[in-house]
Amino acid sequence: MRFIALVFLVGALAIIAVDCNSEGDALNAFKTNVADPNNVLQSWDPTLVNPCTWFHVTCNSQNSVVRVDLGDANLSGSLVPQLGMLSNLQYLQIQNNSISGEIPSELGNLTKLVSLGLENNKLSGFIPSSLGYLKLLRYMRLNSNKLSGEIPISVLKLVLWGNLKLMNVSDNKLAGTVHHTNKTGFAITTIVQDVKEI
């Protein structure tokens, strides 16, 4: 009986280690894809068992990544699809940098995400419809980028069926208008889409 319990424990630990390593690999893929002139990501060592000791990364009690806080870090480069592998991520904050390129559709895999902060970057292309899978999302800040096209219907449905409290898409090149209404009886979401000229 003890042997079976020991085998089970070793197997469980191996699964946890693999999961942590995959999260480290995902974050390392992002690190290798950006320029970091201030060495903000210097502690991101891919040879470590998990990324929980890295600066700007927060983990839960199971050593799984729940926060990535890289606002105002002077980073440039692009987001990588591997970020969608951070299955327990709740906060992705990469605002106020010079991140360019498209928002990977794989971010729609982050179903535990509560806050997505990508504002004040140089992101372009469309808002991925896969972001509509983020039913727990409360704050979506995509403002002050170069995003184009229309806000996908799946993302707008987060207003009705999700927990979304703030969606800021102002200062982009988006088409269309979202009309404010409170006829549905659902919680009110603040949608910011206007650009204020100074």
Automatic annotation (TrEMBL):
What's a GO cellular component annotated to this UniProt protein?
A: plasma membrane
Keywords in alphabetical order: Leucine-rich repeat, Repeat, Signal
User: Which residue numbers delimit the Leucine-rich repeat-containing N-terminal plant-type domain?
Assistant: 21-60
For this entry, list what GO says about its biological process.
Answer: defense response to fungus; signal transduction
Domain of life where this protein originates: Eukaryota
What molecular function terms (GO) are annotated for this protein?
transmembrane receptor protein serine/threonine kinase activity
Tell me the leader sequence span: 1-20
Q: Name one Pfam family in it.
A: LRRNT_2
Q: Which InterPro entries match?
A: Leu-rich_rpt, LRR_dom_sf, LRR_N_plant-typ
Name of the molecule in the record: Leucine-rich repeat-containing N-terminal plant-type domain-containing protein
- Source species: Solanum lycopersicum (Tomato)
What taxonomic lineage is listed for the species of origin?
Eukaryota, Viridiplantae, Streptophyta, Embryophyta, Tracheophyta
